[in-house]
Design brief:
Shape: globular
Helix content: 10-25%
Number of strands: 23
CATH class of the largest domain: Mainly Beta
Strand order of the largest sheet: 11-13-9-8-23-21-16-19-18
Largest sheet: 9 strands, mixed
Number of domains: 3
Structural class: alpha+beta
Distance between the termini: 43 Å
CATH superfamily of the largest domain: Mu homology domain, subdomain B
CATH architecture of the largest domain: Sandwich
Amino acid sequence: MSSAFYILFFPLWIQVLVCRNYMGNMDMNEIDHFMPILMKREEEAEMTPMVSHGSSHFLWIKHSNLYLVAMTKKNANAALVFSFLYKIIQVFKEYFKELEEESIRDNFVTVYELMDEVMDFGFPQTTDSKILQEYITQQGHKLEVGAPRPPATVTNAVSWRSEGIKYRKNEVFMDVIESVNLLVSANGSVLRSEIVGTIKLKVVLSGMPELRLGLNDKVLFEITGREKSKTVELEDVKFHQCVRLSRFENDRTISFIPPDGESELMSYRLNTTVKPLIWIESVIEKFSHSRVEIKVKARSQFKSRSTANNVSILVPVPSDADSPKFKTSNGSTKWVPEKNVVQWNIKSFPGGKEYMMRAHFGLPSVESEELEAKRPITVNFEIPYFTVSGIQVRYLKIIEKSGYQALPWVRYITQSGAHTE
């Protein structure tokens, strides 16, 4: 996949901090051509995530003050290469907290050990930081007397979970989080809408427990005798490696031995029409280029038993506006001149309610109004105990051979994604 890997630091001139030639078929000085090509592309406004010099191809990403570069001479899978680059950033951050030039220089030995473990002969291997931490530690350790004992993950069929884990209180916390991406036109038509969901776990369980999860989802369970019942059709479903896919294919049961601590069990997407959970209407009036008045009405379009928290409505204003005056029926308002927006904050917004905000600005100069009129209103919010898709956890069973009692906790959250009107 990748013949060589570099981490570059570029303050005033290019500095190669670390490099590894995995396949031995690359001239390591070839990297000297990378930055001049990149700078030329930047000057010509033709930046691309891959640049080439002769038969050498550089796939790169920038993080903080570093460039991470994978180099290859073959027709590699670019998506796989970039996935690896972002994954190696996560691994380094797990070890060093912050990935920057100083942390690389302070941990050269650990960095090279990690580079040798995560890739073998140009192909990604182990990129799970919890597994890597069993092999590679930053702290010194004493050798045990007797025969050397390999890490648990070497002999364990469940590589993502170590044996012998013990807790005094056994619990598992599950968060079902949905983000609503919505784009609404000026006349109120929904131009684009989708729901992006994730199910996250925090596992505090002893031993090697098996968990079984049941959802009210048409993709996961066959619906019989209830044609009119509401179902949820999920797309782009992705599971953590712990899920037994063969069992899922056979009977749609999500069965797994979970990693210890926090992890993402699955993600999904619903490409469906969604009405705005918080509907926004706005009227902008300009008076002879001397002042502008903005009226915004916000209405929650979900049931009264739910409440949206930390609602933030960003309303664009002309770039030359000044002397703001505000009046609201609920919440607080402030002017953010560096972003040319009015920020209307409502701490608690119950379902079925409607609030108003009115703003007055002076206009000391005359500028083009066309560009200002096209800027959208952005809405941010979070609704606990609610999923817009209606997906629910029907059961979460915990099975462990010792038979201990464990408490499962499930929480639902709907939040705004890219929500503009």
